[in-house]
Give the backbone structure.
Amino acid sequence: MPLLDGQVRRMFEEVAFSYDLQNSVLSLRRDSAWRRALADRLPPGRPLRVLDVAAGTAEVALEICRRRPLAQVLGLDYSPSMLAVGRGKLLSQGLAGRLSLCLGDARRLPVRDTCMDAVSIAFGIRNVDDRATALAEFRRVLRPGGRALVLEFSLPEASVPRRLYRLYFEHVLPPLGNFLSRSDYAYDYLVESVLAFPKPEAFAQELTRAGFGPVSRTPLSLGIVQLYEANVPNRPAQGAAVRSSSSEGVSCW
Ligand SMILES: C[S@@+](CC[C@H](N)C(=O)[O-])C[C@H]1O[C@@H](n2cnc3c(N)ncnc32)[C@H](O)[C@@H]1O
């Protein structure tokens, strides 16, 4: 049975302190290359304001700061323990002036309309209960011409890699991941949630329905991960309604 939102949050609270190690071991250290690929797709030029949603332990936010020395980054997550790990890293790397972390929900971003140049979310959207609301929020906070970047797991398209990967993913990864995270269910949940997530074309359509322009996607590591890139049209399409902020007064940036 799928986990309820509160159970997902509790799970991230429980695994936070070994989360980075789990990622690195179980992805054979590919995870940092995936996050680098995302950071490389940020819009070019000028200082950027970037919101990293479901920031977790701030790995993406830190990568963005490393790649883009003029960027101001806000990382947001609803798990205080994941953010606490991230905060330790940003302080030890002397990035407190450029990177802030705040507790918040992807479905109700505490950020004013059109104030971000880019919104990123890595391995987070699959976990968000009510994806349509979250995508509408990404659209709302992005300026015209702004960019959403989404990293999410998927399955390889070619049949042999797909079969081999499914063997690893469904039979090796859950016991190993549960052992590393000292959880009974965290990696069973990972597999279930990846298999339940829409196929890449269907997720791209969800982005379009949320008001983004044409969506491009790049399969990474044979399609184990997809990187989606969706831009906000420079002028809103006629008749397109962009939800306005209901969170004025609680802006944390
Ligand atoms: C798999 S982790 C990804 C963390 C990080 N982006 C990374 O690349 O390692 C998923 C994160 O999504 C967060 N999350 C899930 N649902 C959320 C929501 N509705 N609002 C904010 N954060 C959420 C969890 O707390 C968790 O930190």
Remarks:
- The radius of gyration is 17 Å.
- DSSP finds nine helices and seven strands in the chain.
- The longest strand covers residues 142-153.
- Residues 8, 12, 54-56, 59-60, 77-79, 82, 105-107, 122-124, 127-128 surround S-adenosylmethionine (CB under 6 Å).
